[in-house]
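To fix ideas, we quote verbatim one protein's residues and fold tokens.
>
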Amino acid sequence: MMLRPWKASQLLFAILVALVAFSYQQKKKTFIIVREVNVLEPSVPGTLEYVTNAYNKESEDVYNFRILRILKIEKQLTDHLEFHIRVEMRRTTCFKTEKSTCDVQKGALYKQVQCYFSVYVIPWAERYKILKKTCTDS
């Protein structure tokens, strides 16, 4: 049986649409789990330390900042592990060259920021990558 030219083009178009839809579905992330977790969750302490160090490294401030309060941590599991973290950070009395734990600044040098970090994590390899960072003065 021969197909008429317009039926053949319709068939080719339908195949093309199916292939595009299939490839789109392959690229789309499938969420296995998204849930709020606490600081005791494995991988969270290391991730918090990483984002603090990354923030301080990028910051133009002469003082280090530290996390003062954790507002929310969500764990997203897709084809990889991702943490979505909201924290309040404050400027400390330590300069960037100092590595000890210091008190937070008070008075004229007081500064607090609220940050959101999206972090790609491979826990068993202790690998981290910040996917998104947004910080605002609070």
Q: What stands out?
A: The longest strand covers residues 63-77. Residues 5-27 form the longest helix (23 residues). The chain has one domain: 33-137.
